[in-house]
Structure formats: C-alpha cells, structure tokens
Amino acid sequence: MNTISNALAIFCFLLMVPPALAQTVDPESWSPTWINPAWERPANMIPDSAISLPGDLTVDQLEQPTLCGGCHNDIFEQWEGGVHANALNDPIFQKVTKLFLSEVGTEGDREDARSCVRCHTPLGHLSRAVETTEADYDRVTLENRSGIFCDFCHSVKSSAGVGNAPFTVSIEEAAEAKKIKWGPRNDAVSPYHGTAFSDLHTKSEMCGMCHDVTHTLNGTPLERTYTEWREGPYNTGDPATTVYCEDCHMRQLPGVPATGSTERPDNPGISGSGGKEREHVYTHYHVGGNTVLPALFEGGEQNVQMAKERLQNCATLEITAPPLPLIWQGATIHVKVNNVGAGHYLPTGLSEVREMWLEVKVKDVLGRILLHSGKVDANGNLDPQTRLFNIQLADSQGNHTFNVAMPDHVLSDNRIPPKGSRTEQFSFLVPLTGILGYTIEAALRYRSAPQSLIDDLFGEETFPLPIIEMASAEAAVKLVD
Ligand code: HEC
Ligand code: HEC
Ligand code: HEC
Ligand code: HEC
Ligand code: HEC
Predict the structure, then answer these.
(1) Staple partner for 223: which of 181, 213, 301, 307, CB 3.0–4.6 Å?
(2) How far is CA 295 from CA 81, 130, 285, 368, in A?
C-alpha cells in the first residue's frame, strides 16, 4: 500500500489547519503510483523491485557535492544556486511542514508527515536524519546534502515506476573499490569513481519519480507534471523525436532558455576534468518558474534570471477585437493564450498554488480606462474577478476547497495544455468617446503563490513575491487608420 499523503500537508499549507482525516500509515512501505507499460519503460525501470527505505543509508554513504564539484565545477555551480539544492532549506516548504508537524495530534499523523521528506530531502529520509520532529528540519548534519544533490541522483540505480518517489539508491563498487555513479554515458571513465550507463537518467521517468504526486487515499492528482508531459505532444513515442524533460531543463544556459519555442542548442565541452570531449554536456540548473527561492540563497541570482527567461519564452498572446461598436453598446474582445514553450500544462507542478493570470486594460482615445481586469491591489492581492489559469480542488460535496483533508476530485482545471491554447473573453461598455476608437493592452503574469498566503505564513517577516510578465500584446481599434 502506498502511504504518501502530501495532499494533507499541501492543504494545510493553504488552510493553516490540521487535517481532519486521521490515518495511520506505515512509513516503511512505499510504492510507485503507477508503472509504464512494458514497451515504454526505460531499461532500468523495474516493476516490483525493492525501493530504498528509511534506514537503508547512513549520511556519509552519499558524498558531498563539493567533492564532485572538484572535477565537475561547471555542473556544481549550476546546481548550487538552484531549487533542487535547496529543496529542504526552502523556507516556504519548512514553514508549511513545521506547521503540519506542530498541529498533528496522533502518532499516526506524525508518521504520516514523514512522507514530505522523501522527495524534499531524500538522504534525510533514507538515513532517518530528518524524520518526524520539528527539530529535525533544523539539523545541519546533512550539510549541503540536505536537498536533491549529485550523489543522490547519480546513486539511483533503478526505479520501480512513476510517482511518489519509487527510487532505488544503490551504493555499489566497481574495480578498485570505486563507487559507481549512474549516468547517461556508456563510455565515461573517471579517475575517482566507477561509471555505469542508466537508461532511466536519459528519460523523463527519472524526473517523473518525484514530479508526479498523487493523493494516495483517493487518487486525487496533486502534481502531475510527468503525466501531463507523457500524454502531450512532446512525447511522440519515438525516442528519436521525443523531447524529454532533460531536453528543455538540462539544455538551459544563461541567455538560452531552451523551451519548446526557442532553440535548444548543444553545449559542447567536457563534463569533468579529464573527461572526454562531448557534443553536448547536460546542464544542471533545473530551472522552473520559481524566482523566489533561488533569490534567498548564495549563487542563486543567475537562477532567478534564468527562471524569468524561461517564463518569458513559453507563452504568446493574441487579441481579437470586433470592429468599432455603436456608442453605449457592449463590446467583447478575446485574448488567446498559447502554450508554445512548456512541455506540460502551463502552469504545472503545484498549480493549485501558483498564480498565472491575464491583466487586460482597455482605454479610450483620451486614455480613460474602460476595462481593467487582473489588477493587483496595494496589499498585493488579485482582484477576485481575475482570470487565473489554475487547478481548483473540491471536497466530497463538490465545494471548492483548499482543505484536502478530504480532497475528493478536481473541480476545475483551466490551465493550458502543451502546444495548446485557451481563449478568454472580456466585455465592456463603450462610452461616447469609444466611437473614436480604443486600445487594448494584455499581459500574462506569473507569481509563485498568492501574496496573502505568504503573509499568513511569514507574519511580520513577510515579503512581497515577485510578479513576472510572461508575455504581452497590444491592439487598437480606430475610426480612421
Ligand atoms: C513525490 C514527491 C513529493 C512529495 C512526497 C512531496 N513533495 Fe512537495 N514538491 C514536490 C515537487 C516535485 C515540487 C515542485 C513543484 C513545482 O515547483 O511546481 C514540490 C513543491 C512543494 C512546495 C512549493 C515550494 C515553493 O517554495 O514554492 C511545497 C510548499 C511543498 N512541496 C510541500 C510539501 C509537503 C508539506 C509535503 C508533505 C506532505 C510534500 N511537499 C511532499 C514533490 C513532492
Ligand atoms: C577526480 C575527478 C572526479 C571527481 C571527484 C568526480 N568525478 Fe564524476 N567524472 C569524472 C570524469 C573524468 C568523468 C568522465 C566524463 C566523460 O567522459 O564525459 C566523470 C563522469 C561522471 C558521470 C557520468 C557517468 C556516466 O556513465 O554517464 C557522473 C554521473 C559523475 N561523474 C558523477 C559524479 C559524482 C556524483 C561525483 C561526486 C560524488 C563525482 N562524479 C566526482 C571525474 C570526477
Ligand atoms: C535531479 C537529479 C540530478 C542531480 C541533483 C544531479 N544530476 Fe547530474 N545528471 C542527471 C541526469 C538525469 C543526467 C543525464 C541527462 C540526460 O542524459 O538526459 C545527468 C548527467 C550528469 C553528468 C553527465 C553529463 C554529460 O552530459 O555527460 C555528470 C558528470 C553529472 N550529471 C554530474 C552531476 C554533479 C556533479 C551533480 C551535483 C553538482 C549532479 N550531477 C546533480 C541528474 C542529476
Ligand atoms: C528526489 C525527487 C526529485 C527528482 C528525482 C527530481 N526532482 Fe525536480 N524537484 C523536486 C522537488 C522536491 C522540487 C521542489 C523544491 C522546492 O521548491 O522546495 C523540485 C523542483 C524542480 C524544478 C523547479 C521548479 C520551480 O518551481 O522552479 C524543476 C525545473 C525540476 N525540479 C526539474 C526536474 C527535472 C528535469 C528532473 C529530472 C532530471 C527532476 N526535477 C528530478 C524533486 C525531484
Ligand atoms: C518543451 C520544453 C519542456 C519540457 C519537455 C519540459 N518542460 Fe518543464 N518547463 C518548461 C517551461 C518553459 C517552464 C516554465 C513555465 C512553467 O512554469 O510552467 C517549465 C516549468 C517547469 C516546472 C516549474 C513549474 C511551476 O511553475 O511551478 C517544473 C517543476 C518542470 N517544468 C518540470 C518538468 C518535468 C518534470 C518535465 C518532464 C516530465 C518537464 N518539465 C518537461 C519547459 C519544458
């Protein structure tokens, strides 16, 4: 039986209440959410294989990233300021989880809280360094092995499937007692460690282990980035033409966003001192849309800039406006949002929290505002009428709720599918001046969470979340051109 129930905490994150649903779980039992059919499995996705469990590793069995960085300097620098490196240090994650831990009552609930750490601090989880008490989250013993780091990903030998973290970490030695690092090459030779080819590492299923999160009590999808990709057009079924997660997220460099709508050029060179010259060396920034988290950590400035570049190269807007209307009549304009660059839905991941919205302004010839949708008020909150592209979840009565104590189903999902689009319409009344024409400005904006949520979580120490403009368009309707 699968026991991960991140839903509970994510919902607590949103509601700030303990989950109503008490459950007893066995933290030692883990299993994938699902398994790909045989013909589309990477060679080392092995159904029913034993996955790694708490207690399987001691902290020192996985090596320090700084050690790897001694030879793999570029890769180390790319990873260091990123979201993976800081997945446990993430203050938003910490606040949410500590709150969860402080509010749960029963021993069963506390054990349940262990589930969060499996993806956010895999070594903390497998070594039992980070378990169920609040203090665990402040431990420093993991040093920079606290998040998702080199030796974790490269000691993954196989996976048992997709979703809810079904990884098998294996410390194995090659000749001369050199520990094996699994990677994408079958001809890599390192003076320091053994190497072995892993098909999994070259495919989306590597990322899909963690980037596919399901509520295990009732199967409500919470984060389905891998599934969205798998069912979308970037997965052609043919490895020669498929665009894997790695093809977008591990080809990005500063100034090279590497999205579905931009070039994804090779990055030729060597991956580590003394290594072979390669046509392409996979980069390790692993940048998404988060401009908040990297800004808090040393070396993160570049990742912030790269997240902006990613967000600014994945959507386009098209405005359609009717001919000049009669005075005092209503006019309706359409704004189409195209997902041209994301390999999954836009937005993806924690899409019940992320905010992506349209701001649309219509002005008459005198510059007076006829319509303004998607305004942000002085406190940073969005106008309730704003057209947001997100997921809303519902309880068993069908009411929209963030309380996933009993998440029952997805109420609505109006995000934009990969290579797909959505069209929103906006109506307004045309005053006397409207007969001379009007102008339309539309912008697509992104924020990692509602401002009010951060204000609630951080209290006095709250900070304004950045808002990124992803795309914009303008149009004018005039009496005479
Ligand atoms: C199966 C893997 C997995 C598990 C288990 C998991 N998460 Fe996550 N979590 C993720 C991934 C992947 C992301 C990044 C998604 C994105 O950026 O949209 C994430 C992102 C988050 C974020 C957003 C962080 C930010 O700064 O924006 C929070 C908060 C969070 N998780 C809380 C939790 C809590 C609390 C639990 C335990 C109840 C949990 N997660 C369990 C995989 C997991
Ligand atoms: C003494 C230098 C050195 C150190 C230290 C080092 N590596 Fe390497 N590593 C290399 C070289 C050289 C290669 C071969 C590169 C090539 O030929 O493309 C390599 C290759 C790799 C590969 C590719 C394997 C494959 O088959 O695809 C991975 C993964 C890897 N290293 C991970 C690590 C990790 C993780 C650490 C830290 C625990 C580390 N390395 C430490 C030098 C080093
Ligand atoms: C989230 C998991 C993850 C983390 C963390 C990670 N890697 Fe990797 N790494 C990968 C994957 C996946 C590939 C192969 C991509 C492909 O072939 O599509 C890879 C490729 C490599 C390669 C071979 C590159 C090439 O093109 O030949 C080296 C060397 C390497 N990683 C070293 C490191 C080092 C050093 C760190 C830490 C600073 C690190 N990795 C952190 C997942 C990870
Ligand atoms: C061990 C689990 C794990 C694996 C494997 C993993 N990730 Fe992640 N990833 C996470 C978690 C957890 C977060 C969120 C951390 C946070 O926000 O605190 C994350 C964050 C990210 C982000 C940043 C999201 C944002 O909002 O900016 C990207 C992009 C990403 N991962 C891509 C990948 C890719 C590509 C792979 C495969 C090569 C991969 N990940 C493999 C767990 C994992
Ligand atoms: C065709 C290119 C492409 C592919 C393929 C792709 N992505 Fe992305 N990804 C993007 C772009 C562009 C963004 C920024 C827009 C956004 O946030 O959705 C992004 C954002 C993300 C985010 C951050 C979402 C958020 O806003 O919190 C995560 C996490 C992520 N990708 C993971 C993955 C994983 C895992 C895969 C494979 C299953 C994958 N991506 C495949 C282009 C791609």
Answers:
(1) 213
(2) 8, 25, 14, 38
The burial class, CB within 10 Å (0-12 / 13-18 / 19+), for 304 is buried
For ligand 1, the distance from its centroid to the CA atom of residue 376, given in whole angstroms, is 26
- The residue contributing the CA closest to ligand 5 atom 42 is 342
Q: Can you give the pLDDT at residue 18?
A: 31
Residue that is written with structure tokens 């795309």 in the block: 471
How far apart are the C-alpha atoms of 285 and 81, rounded to whole Å?
8
Q: Is 310 in the pocket of ligand 5 (CB under 6 A)?
A: yes
Residue 133 confidence (pLDDT): 58
Per residue in 405-421, pLDDT (tens digit) is 445 788 899 999 999 99
CA-to-CA dists, residue 127 to 61, 76, 182, 467, angstroms: 9, 23, 20, 38
Look-up of token digits 């497998």:
126
**Sign of the dihedral through C-alpha 294, 300, 301, 303:** negative
Å from CA of 266 to ligand 2 middle: 20
Q: Ligand 1 center to residue 260 CA distance, Å?
A: 25
Residue 155 and residue 148: Cα distance in Å, rounded?
A: 12
Contact 202, 244 (CB under 8 A): yes
How much is the CA Rg of the chain, to the nearest whole Å? 24
